[in-house]
Here is the input.
Amino acid sequence: MRQARPAKQWKPGQEMRRAALLFIAPAAILWIWWFAYPAIRSLILSFYDYNYIRTAGNQFVGLANYAKLFTDRTFKQSFWHSCQMVLVCVPVQTCLSLLFAVLLDTEFRGRSVIRTIFYAPYVISAIAVATVFMYLYGQDAPLTNLFSALFGLENKGWFANMKLALPLVMIMFVWQQTGFYMIMYLAGLDSIPSELNEAAEIDGANRLQLFFHITRPMLRPTTYLVVTYGIITAFQVFDQMSAIAGTGVLGSPGGALNTMVTFFYQNSFKYGKVGYGSAAVVVLFILIFTITLLQRMFVERENRKGGGGEA
Amino acid sequence: MKGIGFRVFRFAVLALFTAVFLYPLVYAVYYSLLPLPDMGKIAPISHFTLENYTDLYNNYPVGRWILNTVIVTVSVVTFSVILNSMAGYALARWEFPGKKAIFAFVLGSMMIPYQFVITPVYIQLAQLHWNDRLIGIIVPFIVNCLYIFMARQFFLGIPKELEEAARVDGLGLIGAFFRIVAPISTPLVLSIIILNFTGTWNFYIGPATFINNRDNYVLSVGIKTVKDFMYDKKNQTLAGVVVLSLPILVMFTILQKHFVEGIATTGIKG
Here is the structure.
């Protein structure tokens, strides 16, 4: 019995292929059915003047949808708002989460409670967060009053204010996301061998030198992930816009919250312009893909120049 | 660690941000427990009442929404843990034709925003008459390439000798997975459960797009409509916010110890 069953000839390759088929097939079928095929269809739709409100006349229009996008003022506005989300939120949340992780890395009383509190916003629904923040930044609400006292801002609901609606979304987004990246940085800090820090301390390095010459380069793979994931998520913000718009037009107030995703959604699901909406979301994908690729190339070049760990 | 300056700095930063992170949570719970005349005021705890919660329950099918959310979340998470781990295990351990291509697809999918596929998914659901039904927000969301990737990374970190010993004991490849590897995969399973549970519980764009009948709403969509129609009844809306958030906060607090460990072993840290 224990002699590896000599009677039955064991064919490792064949058994492995069968087992692999059995293990991969369920996931693969669902993936093709509900992801790969829809993705290809989405791409194809973007070349059609497809409108499901109208019954006839869905025809191939080549790149016409894309050409139209780049002359559409609403799309340009949406594109710019999405970029603002990324350009403001990603640096802020990356720096804050790194700061929190470094401060919470050493043992002290209350550390795990604080870590839980910082992470808690991330597990809550964006709808819940947006609702609470709408109350906090409403007219005469506590934080509206605080900021108007500090910076002389108008005492008016931020979500109803064309100028302050996007900053409000940025605030709630960063408030919610930072804890997650803090956890990633904490895991990254855990993987730095403590001998490195000890050796540097013996050499007389102070805390800041330690951070900039040991910790920061060693955390480069984590930073790569935090930034990549941050960019992708910031481009995709949607729930907050939907909550703020309420029963009104998505992107309210007055288009101040139009982003590439709300633009796509509004066209595909509210105006029935599926082809046009699909083109917008293809552009979003290309944008995310290009940025991820460029970043990857940049990191690899840095590594070849002799940086810290690999990404 | 020494350095009094560092400690003061640490205390100041952490105290400030603890307040920043706690304030909105406390605010929501506090006003969800107070009657309407007390809104915007500092009211004593003696004013606390659960009336907002019972009103919410009587005015909206919140019970149904909770049930729907639980059904959807439990179904998605159960199948997701099993199917994604199996796929990740095959990619980590076995040699078979097409393995490299499949892994490339897994990585590539992680870069595609979900909005990219939502329109064709909606069309497919409508063709199957799955729109407006819970199955339509379960089946399409079971496979997630992030979890396949996490599983692969986790299984790569387990010594091969374990399964080799199992083979000597006469177990097949599949038997070795279920009897030997699966029982020691708790960190992976818990990480997938935490990420997928929160993701599914809070998922909004899918259910908001695919479900129209109010009785079939999940909590995220339901509470959003409560907010839309009852914005002036702040206490009742905030009660809805608490109902939507509390279960997930409790689950997270119970499992959070394993979560940090999970992130470290499943490779989402890079």
